[in-house]
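Thread amino acids onto this structure.
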């Protein structure tokens, strides 16, 4: 094999998070891979792999660049690989992909073994599976608790998306702080799709009035029930003027949330349920919302907060450590366990135009401090350090 520093550095990465309807991990993976490809076109070759058994599925839409390539694993379904893992049989990545790399990047917690002991890293997005295990699907919880320690031992270093997460990873798994790289999640550049187009998209989603926005997969951790309770505590005239819009796909163990939404809508409440939204729809929602709110019990970061801020939309959010880290003093915080406190913070934003404007302007400046170029550079530097190359 030629000296890896005399040619492109070949990074093999797990591309499964890029398939289908992308959520937080998918957006993170997409943006980071694109930033690496654009910043280091003469240094890096990025090879993503994903399962497509016997090529039965239509080719997905994936990020492209001259130095991004893909390997389809066609001879074995991904479900079989996961099943074998549960029997403690980890197939070597080189066997699956027929590719030998200089470095391997696993952006979604768990990876595989390497015949050549190729250096690698994994992104541990959060420690919900340790701190609040009841908010993790049982199958995922079992996999994470069983296999994260081995993944940590296989990794050259670990990646996490917040300083709060870094602290918890160090405390829980005794990973040296120097072996943990923090890569926050910057917002995408706001999309400019035009006022007329935005109105069309909002109308298509059933939104014809002012609205309060929350966005995220419907699951217990997102605390939608307390937000609905808070909305019902707003004065009647506020409810008539401002709809409550919940956007995002249906997740797991959310029968209570789905049932409550349907019940309130049937009762004639000004509540709008929007499913998964694409990027233009997200832009229309963020730009036109009166404010964005997120009442999560626990998060690894807070990407939608920065997304909303980048559009100049103020935020009212949970008072949890990672949100304080992400937004600092540019958001309004509430006790996420108390619907009365949530409603009170919402009323502040709706009734105090000065506060609304201050938070909108401060949030926009805060969001601009997060840049994908910086995130990609920090990961590139750490990889080069592992490989013995120049920064």
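Threaded sequence (391 positions):
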């Amino acid at each position: 094999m030629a000296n890896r520093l005399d040619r492109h550095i070949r990074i093999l990465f797990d591309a499964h998070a890029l398939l289908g309807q992308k959520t937080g991990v998918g957006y993170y993976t997409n943006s980071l891979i694109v930033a690496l490809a654009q910043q280091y076109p003469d240094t890096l070759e990025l090879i993503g792999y994903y399962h497509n058994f016997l090529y039965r599925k239509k080719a997905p839409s994936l990020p492209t660049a001259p130095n991004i390539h893909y390997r389809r694993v066609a001879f074995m379904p991904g479900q079989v690989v996961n099943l074998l893992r549960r029997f403690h049989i980890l197939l070597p990545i080189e066997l699956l992909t027929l590719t030998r790399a200089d470095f391997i990047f696993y952006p979604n917690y768990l990876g595989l073994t390497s015949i050549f002991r190729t250096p690698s890293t994994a992104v541990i997005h959060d420690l919900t599976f340790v701190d609040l295990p009841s908010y993790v699907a049982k199958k995922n919880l079992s996999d994470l608790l069983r296999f994260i320690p081995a993944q940590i031992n296989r990794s050259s270093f670990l990646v996490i998306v917040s300083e709060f997460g870094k602290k918890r990873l160090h405390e829980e798994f005794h990973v040296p702080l120097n072996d943990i790289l923090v890569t926050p999640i910057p917002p995408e550049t706001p999309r400019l799709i035009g006022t007329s187009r935005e109105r069309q998209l909002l109308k298509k989603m059933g939104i014809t009035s002012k609205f309060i926005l929350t966005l995220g997969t419907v699951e217990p951790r997102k605390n939608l029930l307390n937000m609905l309770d808070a909305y019902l505590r707003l004065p009647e005239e506020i409810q008539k003027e401002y709809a409550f819009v919940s956007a995002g796909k249906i997740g797991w163990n959310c029968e209570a949330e789905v049932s409550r939404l349907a019940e309130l809508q049937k009762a004639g409440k000004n509540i709008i349920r929007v499913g998964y939204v694409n990027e233009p729809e997200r832009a229309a929602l963020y730009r036109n919302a009166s404010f964005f709110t997120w009442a999560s019990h626990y998060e690894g970061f807070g990407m939608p907060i920065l997304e909303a801020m980048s559009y100049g939309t103020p935020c009212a959010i949970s008072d949890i450590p990672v949100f304080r880290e992400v937004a600092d003093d540019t958001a309004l915080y509430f006790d996420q366990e108390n619907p009365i406190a949530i409603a009170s913070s919402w009323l502040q934003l709706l009734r105090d135009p000065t506060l609304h404007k201050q938070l909108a302007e401060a949030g926009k400046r805060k969001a601009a401090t997060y840049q994908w170029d910086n995130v990609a550079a920090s990961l590139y530097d750490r990889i080069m350090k592992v490989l013995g190359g120049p920064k």
